[in-house]
Amino acid sequence: MTNLTDLGIAAIRDGFKAGDFTARDVASAFNDAVAGAKALNAFIVETPEIALAAADQADKDRASGSLKPLSGVPIGMKDLFATKDVQTTAASHILEGFVPQYESTVSGKLWNAGAGMLGKLNLDQFAMGSSNETSFFGNVISPWRRNNGDTAALAPGGSSGGTSSAIAARLVPGATGTDTGGSIRQPAAFTGISGIKPTYGRCSRWGIVAFASSLDQAGPMARDVRDCAILLENMAGFDPKDSTSLDLPVPNWEAALSADLKGKRVGIPKEYRVDGMPAEIDALWEQGIAWLKDAGAEIVNVSLPHTQYALPAYYIIAPAEASSNLARYDGVRYGLRDLPDGANLQDMYAATRAAGFGDEVKRRILIGTYVLSAGFYDAYYTQAQKVRTLIARDFDQAWEKCDLLLTPTAPSAAFGLSEKSDDPLAMYLNDVFTVPTSLAGLPAMSVPGGLDALGLPLGLQIIGKALDEQTVLNAGLAIEERAGFTARADKWW
Amino acid sequence: MSVDHATVRKIASLARIAVTDDQVEAMVPELNNILGWIEQLGEVDTSAVQPMTAVIPNVLRLREDVVTDGDVRDAVLKNAPQAEQGFFTVPKVIE
Predict the structure, then answer these.
(1) Does domain A4-258+479-483 have CATH number 3.90.1300.10?
(2) In this predicted complex, what is the ipTM?
């Protein structure tokens, strides 16, 4: 019998439907994998009993002929999604012990579609980070190691680092991520998996712990493109509870998957050739261009002239929104309260927030407070929002010449834990290729393209027009079929 | 523009985050490093550009003016660090 944890979403769904195995067998196999992988620290909470209960329901539904789209499929849930009666922390001490009395829209849709929950996945605290080193619940370790005998722990990327690590280690066949500036795509690239951030507004933000509301967007991460399409279909859709939710039908992305790119024009933005980028990433990019040509696409050179300003604009806008969103953590309604002896209400707020937020979260709240403060608002925040308009305009102008864009996902392969954590700026620069798309609200996906000389995965990013997830997924599939990426981390955990 | 110790104390106070002297000492160069890098946005000519208000065009919907929620007091208070007699409680406030 096949090892059930080697199966992806589609294979589990189809095999379960065909009667090759029971949902309980699948859930048990993944529960065992989760329980045996504590060294990765990918989970904050494990929920084996919830996975089993969903599996038993799926087995009953199969017997009664009432299967749902994800019946029999267990998944992981990033611990940024509120899950009813299951602790939800955003990886922060300030929310430790918070047990939501409601379910986020996206997680609720997945459970209604028949999926079961294996647990809540670790992440960077409030999704602020690119290496999963800012979690209050400890670093997540990537299952990947360099092939030169070095056993240094590597970053799984961030902020969806628990998600990427768990999928790469085959603890879950797929899971949710969220992406504010690259938090789905960069960890997917670091761990040799796929992940798509859909168009802003496709997935409801209701019940997702807010970081930067004009940028936050949920999306799936999984081992391949088809699995991402399946999960995304079951996550997206209009939600009246989110004022920025798009009132549009959810396309049948899986059914329309096609690796034939005839008639599609792929833009190659020259500004993404940055100084100091490893030659291997440049070579993979060239290889990706050749693969898309082979799939029938025409290649055109395009320019996105304001690319270099995307990161500084992002590091004004995202902290500004975060400083506002995170004002809600006051020690009164939920979460941590720190009440020093004799403290008044203001002292309690300040003590609670000092004790509850991690260093990176505080740093961003302070930056956000500063750029929004009287006298500086126009110079920083308004200017950043104007630059954001120019960045979106760059993409609009590119779409006159092409239908999608191909770039590397990240400027390096996975780095070691603590290699960058002392230098916030160096860490921020890791999102140089993913942030512009976030600022423009466009759909973008990372798919694995190959390995570097040290045996670590490298990803390619496909960026599409607003609402054109289909072309993004199709190009991802075209690359996937040609890359034949089958490498996986050797089990050491 | 750069921040000094007093400014860091001021924004920490605005953000309701208690900071120690050592933390302020560490934050000043850290924040200045980031703010110095952000300064490059000033080189972009934005004189004829409107600030972004929505990444994807969308209309702000109005909903029916009806009660859709409520009667969930216990659920609302369930996660409160301190709740008494159906209320959130805070330290005594004397103005």
Answers:
(1) yes
(2) 0.96
